[in-house]
Design goal:
Blueprint (H helix, E strand, L loop, with lengths): L8 H8 L3 H9 L7 E2 L5 E2 L2 H15 L4 H8 L8 H42 L3 E4 L4 E8 L3 E5 L5 H11 L4 E5 L18 H15 L4 E6 L1 H12 L4 E7 L10 H13 L4 H12 L22 H19 L5 H5 L3 E6 L6 H13 L3 E4 L5 H4 L1 H8 L13 E2 L2 E2 L12
Length: 416
């Protein structure tokens, strides 16, 4: 396409994907300048016209209002500094596109988890473990060494896709913590503190084996495993901890106060509590080393069922979890690997995990995705999981059956 060539409307339509009537409409609406015409009155577009229209297509596809597009394309020739105006328009539009991408990422995460959840319901049976004050629902799939996937509040549904990925190498056990999923809360049930959740998990492990087992814990589940290491260190062969959100380890009084306020509001106003915890944790965002999570992003109104879940999670489970103080010496007695999302930088849980890694003197391993990587990117997560604990990554790891610390590989540690 030469700069002095002229093109008809049919050619421009074919190159840009805009119908001729649409091109004429944009002219009438003064979204693009009118092209020159030949003696017969037919439109003749220059190369610059075509490039401008192509840019218009990108802006339109990403949701820029037509009024802003008209300003950008320069139809209004009264603008004193068109270059500066274009920078301002594109900067504002980039911010809108970024916010929209964040919304789509969150929606995609939910859709991915729901697909795995419904697939798991179709293909997996549910077993029950009776506890003194409740019943714990759990599921088992795959063949190989026992591996327990532990979450809080995430349960079987949250781990369905990851469990499917790991089932070719392990006998994978997932369970719903008390009050979550099929493990319904009952009157008189003990509060879901890390101590109680660890005791539930120990009972579940005891029902399978008297031997040390492998564990992977994410978010609150990683905190459960920290307490399990304290209560039953002989039970833990290896534990991979992904982003335990321990506000207790951060020297950040403002963050602690905001978290406590969100938990306090959960019973009366769970929508507000969810919004406040979402903003302070940053956990649904994707942030690299040079990116900060946005300070605020408005969430849609939650349906009644989700509000009830968050009355329980934020009102009863989250507080004891994030303010839990781990026993560092107890953790040193077991083989532990600490992991965080490669897209979780400057978020609450990754900061806490980094602080824990510094206290233990162990590296922090990057994993795919953000705080929700285990459920949102299960294939990539399982590929580098491994269970991610060998002598190179954890110098305290005792020899395993396949050599020091186990045989399964993990991604190279990322300096923190």
């Amino acid at each position: 396409m030469s700069e002095d060539e002229l093109f008809g409307i049919a050619d421009v339509s074919a190159w840009t994907g805009l119908a001729p009537d649409t091109l004429r409409y944009f002219e009438r609406q003064r979204v693009v300048p009118s092209p020159r015409r030949d003696i017969a009155g037919r439109r003749q577009y220059t190369t610059a016209d075509v490039e401008l229209i192509r840019m218009l297509v990108h802006l339109r596809e990403t949701g820029m209002p037509l009024a802003d597009i008209a300003q950008f394309t320069g139809v209004d020739d009264k603008v004193a500094d068109p270059a500066r105006l274009r920078v301002e328009l594109l900067t504002a539009h980039r911010r809108r596109v970024h916010d929209r991408r964040e919304q789509l990422d969150r929606a995609l995460d939910v859709i991915t988890r729901k697909i795995a959840d419904f697939t798991d319901r179709i293909t997996s049976s549910v077993d029950l473990l009776d506890r003194p004050d409740c019943t714990i629902a759990f599921g088992v799939q795959g063949e190989g060494p026992l591996l327990f996937l532990v979450g809080a509040p995430a349960g079987r549904a949250g781990f369905a896709a990851l469990a499917h990925e790991l089932a070719g190498r392990f006998t994978v056990v997932t369970h719903d913590p008390r009050g979550i999923g099929a493990s319904r809360a009952v009157p008189g049930m003990a509060a879901p503190t890390p101590e109680v959740l660890a005791a539930d998990l120990a009972a579940l492990v005891d029902s399978f084996t008297g031997e040390p087992a492998l564990f992977v814990g994410t978010s609150g589940g990683a905190v459960t495993l920290l307490e399990l290491a304290k209560q039953r260190p002989e039970m833990v062969s290896r534990a991979v901890l992904h982003e335990p959100p321990l506000v207790s380890l951060l020297d950040d009084a403002d963050l602690a106060d905001r978290a406590a306020a969100a938990f306090k509001a959960a019973e009366a106003d769970p929508q507000r509590a969810v919004q406040e915890f979402f903003d302070l944790s940053g956990a649904a965002h994707h942030t690299g080393p040079d990116q900060m999570p946005p300070a605020h992003m408005a969430l849609p109104e939650l349906p009644g069922e989700e509000l009830d879940k968050n009355r329980y999670f934020l009102g009863r489970m989250a507080g004891p979890t994030v303010f839990y103080v781990p026993g560092i010496e107890a953790i040193r007695r077991v083989s532990v690997t600490l992991c965080a999302g490669s897209l979780s930088h400057h978020q609450m849980a990754r900061r806490a995990t980094q602080a824990l890694a510094e206290l233990l003197g162990v590296p922090l391993i990057d994993m795919p995705g953000n705080h929700l990587g285990a459920s949102a990117e299960p294939a990539d997560f399982s590929h580098v999981l491994g269970p991610c604990s060998n002598s190179e990554h954890n110098p305290r790891a005792p020899p395993g059956p396949d050599g020091p610390g186990g045989a399964l590989p993990c991604r190279t540690p990322t300096p923190y």
